[in-house]
Write a structure and sequence with these properties.
Structural class: alpha+beta
Largest sheet: 10 strands, mixed
Radius of gyration: 34 Å
Shape: elongated
Strand content: 25-35%
Helix content: 25-40%
């Protein structure tokens, strides 16, 4: 572990304050780390992930003796030194060829890890198509079954943390230059990246065309370390300053849309004024009509006097 540094001047104090915990955290930094043995496919995959994550990414070009599932001490050291909470470790051996391990950190500890094997890899530079600008915010599209198991839900959460970048209040439609598609089918995750182009459609909303930009890879799940329950509760806790006060009878769905519930008194429909029509007139019951006829009929004594 790194030693605790006390600020000796204003510059050091600003640097340490930037790394201190905040209500609204800084964009998550990604470390792409090469293991002791790698392959050309692994190196290209790490370089492409680093290109997608720029400028909040650091690429380790030298080999490091890192084995995430044996010891996490080196990972915690790299995370604290570079103020990073996301890592991708690339290794290659006979038992697990072309291997990528996605690591997520919280409070200087490993939160969860998921290991994948790379298949059908095509590098970013093998596509002769336009590329997106550096630092642009992508659109994420998750397709397939991502909710059948808690592990798949955690994988989806990890990929969201990896690619979403900053969280602005407003997004310009023209600034969404590329789309990252993650499709889970038959136990595999198909990663595709496309550039989006706005075309004229003849209406107010433009027509969007997508062209594959790269990289393209299929990820086959291997080993996994799920998050510890207590650590996960602390990781997903929302600060009170962001959460705000709860408004009664107002709820928000997953897309941020607000829904309100209005309570009204019970209405007496018999008192509602309607248009007077023949068809809406109240009809008499046969029993009531019989009673009225019997009331109008003369009594036997009265009939005798009349006679």
């Amino acid at each position: 572990m790194l030693r605790t540094v006390k600020p000796k001047n204003a510059r050091t104090k600003r640097f340490l304050d930037n790394r201190a915990p905040k209500v609204v955290e800084n964009p998550k930094t990604l470390l792409t780390i090469r293991g002791s043995t790698t392959s050309l496919i692994v190196n290209q995959a790490l370089a492409d992930l680093h290109s997608l994550k720029k400028p909040t990414a650091v690429n380790f070009t030298k080999k490091n003796d890192v084995h995430p599932f044996d010891s996490t001490q080196n990972l915690e050291f790299f995370a604290q030194k570079n103020d990073a909470s996301l890592m991708v470790v690339g290794t290659h051996n006979k038992k697990r060829p072309h291997d990528l391990t996605f690591v997520r950190m919280f409070d200087g500890q490993v939160l969860d890890m998921y290991e994948f094997g790379i298949e059908n890899f095509v590098s970013l530079h093998d596509f002769a198509t336009p590329k997106c600008a550096i630092g642009m915010k992508p659109s994420l599209a998750f397709q397939g079954d991502w909710t059948s198991t808690p592990q798949l839900e955690n994988m989806r959460s990890l990929f969201v943390d990896l690619f979403r970048g900053e969280q602005p209040d407003q997004v310009n439609l023209a600034g969404l230059e590329y789309v990252i598609s993650l499709t889970h089918i038959a136990g595999r995750i198909h990663l595709r990246v496309y550039t989006s182009h706005l075309k004229k459609s003849g209406v107010k909303l433009p027509r969007i065309e997508v062209v594959e930009m790269g990289p393209r890879m299929d990820l086959v799940p291997r080993r996994a370390v799920d998050p510890v329950t207590e650590l996960w509760k602390h990781a997903i806790r929302v600060p009170k300053e962001i959460k705000g006060s709860k408004t009664k009878n107002v709820s928000t769905d997953g897309l941020g849309d607000k829904f309100g519930r209005v309570h009204m008194q019970k209405q007496d429909l018999s008192m509602v004024q309607t248009r007077k029509m023949k068809g809406l007139k109240r009809t008499r019951d046969p029993a009531e009509e019989g009673q009225e006829e019997s009331a109008d009929a003369p009594s036997p004594a009265k009939r005798a006097r009349e006679d």
